[in-house]
Amino acid sequence: MTDESSAMGQPYEIISVRRAEPPPGGEGADWYDYVIMQGSNTIHGCQQGNRTAVTTAVEGIVAQLNERRMGKRGRVNLVPTPKAQK
Would residue 38 count as lying in a domain? Predict the structure, then answer.
């Protein structure tokens, strides 16, 4: 099994949410950096808001990433065929 295929078996998870300085061009206060990991894949991001709101938003990102990781669930559209008349 390669590193990439073993990483695909692992879900994304939040590693940290930490208070940070505003990013270049960012204004205001209450900025947080976050780190999401899945195996050797790392996502770094930043978001403005209070810690609770940022953590909730990052949890949503992780949930969406994990849903995408599983692939799209197929929809079955069954159309009944009329039975032949005797």
Answer: yes
